[in-house]
Amino acid sequence: MVGQVGVAVGHEIRNPLTTVRGFLQMLGSEKNYEGAREYFSLMIEEIDKADATISHLINLANNKTNNPENLNLNNIVHECLSGYLDQERHSNIKIETRLNDIPDILIDKLEVRELIENLLINAIEAMPDGGTITVNTDTFDNEVLLIIQDQGTGISIEAAKCIGTPFFTTKETSAGLGLAICYSIARRHSAQIQFVSTPKGTKFIVYFPGGSEREQKNGYGA
């Protein structure tokens, strides 16, 4: 329902936002407003945040992946982690990887990247004082597993009941869409997400279906 509303209002909101953004860029480049460029940049940044939220809402409404390919999950993990913690604000975070030999699976690269990045952001935000994030891949039966574990303080019993619900968040600066998008992406890949949380950390496990391209396409995006 949330995603359907996002699609319905997306165009109605995006069109005026695009117009406002264009005029702000134009005015911000004029010499008469040189002293106010910082404010123009701030307004444009806020518009971009609103536009990103609209994109997330539309993403929740999608029922099928856009570009499924036979890819190796390990390669996507490497791409996500490459330079991810080079930023100064992540200097107290360490990432360890244990990537096992896994078969290629039918996945949408951009969507799975977004899923991994959202889980990483969630893990980083769970450890404000720093710690280690472990990213594993493995196989179990006919499934390929992605496992991301942090050393945060865990998820409360009350919050655990709402994990994956759009707009649910325990953070003051979050829209509460990150994990909801993860669950939406998993659903489109016929994958399952489980998590285990204790006061010493939280582990998210994503179970992707294995098998050949033909076998997966029989139920892909259902």
Keywords summarizing the entry:
alpha+beta, 2 domains, 22% strand, 222 residues, Heat Shock Protein 90, 7 strands, five-stranded mixed beta sheet, two-stranded antiparallel sheet, 7 helices
CATH class division of the largest domain: Alpha Beta
Taking Cα atoms only, what radius of gyration do you get, to the nearest Å?
20 Å
Biggest sheet, strands in spatial order?
Answer: 2-4-5-7-6
Number of strands: 7
Q: What is the CATH topology classification name of the largest domain?
A: Heat Shock Protein 90
- Order of SSEs, N→C? HHEHEEHEEHHEEH
| Name given to the CATH architecture of the largest domain | 2-Layer Sandwich
Largest sheet geometry: 5 strands, mixed
CATH superfamily of the largest domain: Histidine kinase-like ATPase, C-terminal domain
Strand content: 15-25%
What is the share of helical residues? 40-55%
Tally of structural domains:
2
Low-confidence stretches: 214-222
- Give average pLDDT, whole number: 81
- Count of DSSP-assigned helices: 7
Which descriptor suits the 3D outline?
A: globular
What structural category characterises the helix and strand content?
A: alpha+beta
Please give the alpha-carbon distance between the first and last residues. Answer: 17 Å
Domain Histidine kinase: 8-212
InterPro entries: HATPase_C_sf, HATPase_dom, His_kinase_dom, HisK_dim/P_dom, HisK_dim/P_sf, Sig_transdc_His_kin-like_C
Pfam family, one: HisKA
GO molecular function: ATP binding; phosphorelay sensor kinase activity
